[in-house]
Amino acid sequence: MQPSLRQLTFLIALADELHFSNAAKRCNVTQSTLSAGLKELESILGVTLAERSRRSVIMTPIGRKIVEQSRKILADTQSLVEMAALESEAMAGDMHLGVIPTIGPFLLPRLRPLLRSAHPHLRLYLREELTDQLLEGLKSGRLDVALIALPHDVGDLETLELFEDGYHLVTPMNHKLARRDEADGKMLQGEPLMLLERGHCLQQHALSAFPGLLNKDAEFDATSLATLLAMVEEGLGSTLIPNIAIDAGLTRAHEVVEIDLPTSLPRKVTMVWRKSSTRKDDFRALGDLIVAARNSLKADKVSHQTRYQANHYDGSPS
């Protein structure tokens, strides 16, 4: 037979009050109920916890030790209850989110402040990995939800498409298309593009922007978008950069040209999770904030362009 939490509560009350009547009032029970509970506790433990007399109560040395341990047990129990309550609350507790490298660096800095403001009880743990690793993490339970780009085979995972993400052609300053604001697939036909290495889903997505028209530079594979931009700036070739990265200002520190590709087929930024998950409403709420973060990037880009144009207009007649 094991001591009950009720008996431990009685013991702590008696140790604090050193008076049976006051301890009973504190526990909202009769004095006889408190006394019977403590006697049963002593019987279970096989030790005397308190010395009783008509005028006083003195805790025994072992009684004092057991009181301190009892306080820890009740505190841990309360923490367990609070943890469960927090987890059952909407958008609270721990959530493990995985995200691909061609989305995370641009979107997450905007998402975190929105999340802290709207859902302060949610602790979001982030993991940046390639798509196949994220899908493995979902299936193994290492991740709760992931942010990836489709098309990609996700098996039987549940999906929620958030937004489409198109592309810009990024070229050296002296490129033949550098003076154009827009381009299409036919203008890029036959031109080898520097792209991310195999394993990044963006490689295939970029080539699919204009199906059958684009070619990859077979002599070059990059590990990041930053590496691609550095190569373009050195005049070694051109590349496709997702609009989310453009809007986040990835190219601003580079002397390159951005050319919009309005007719390109976009990748679809999508949340995925296990169909068995009980947190689907939380994931959808997170998806709303991700869309808000994406929209804020667009708004900031427009604002930046407006300020740039104003600063470079000298007011002279044309």
Overall description:
46% of the residues lie in helices and 21% in strands. The chain is α/β, with parallel strands linked by helices. The strands form four sheets. Strands 4-3-5-12-6 form a five-stranded mixed sheet, with helices on both faces. α5 (104-118) crosses α11. The longest helix has 32 residues, at 280-311.
Please, what is the average pLDDT?
89
CATH topology-level name of the largest domain: D-Maltodextrin-Binding Protein, domain 2
- Give the amount of beta strand, in percent: 15-25%
CATH hierarchy: architecture of the largest domain: 3-Layer(aba) Sandwich
Number of helices: 11
Q: Terminal Cα separation, in Å?
A: 95 Å
Structural class: alpha/beta
The number of strands is 12
Going by CATH, the homologous superfamily of the largest domain would be Periplasmic binding protein-like II
Please estimate the helix content: 40-55%
Secondary-structure element pattern, one letter each = HHHEEHEHEHEEEHEHEHEHEEH
Going across the major beta sheet, what is the strand order?
4-3-5-12-6
Notable features of this structure?
single chain; 318 residues; alpha/beta; Arc Repressor Mutant, subunit A; D-Maltodextrin-Binding Protein, domain 2; 3 domains; 5-stranded mixed β-sheet; 3-stranded antiparallel β-sheet; 12 strands; 46% helix; rod-shaped
In short:
The protein has helices spanning 5-17, 20-26, 31-45, 61-88, 104-118, 131-140, 185-188, 201-207, 225-233, 243-247, 280-311, and strands spanning 50-52, 57-59, 93-99, 122-128, 145-150, 158-165, 167-171, 192-196, 215-222, 239-242, 257-260, 267-273. With 318 residues, it is of the alpha/beta class. It folds into 3 domains: 5-88, Arc Repressor Mutant, subunit A, CATH 1.10.10; 93-164 and 268-310, Periplasmic binding protein-like II (D-Maltodextrin-Binding Protein, domain 2); 167-265, Periplasmic binding protein-like II (D-Maltodextrin-Binding Protein, domain 2), CATH 3.40.190.10.
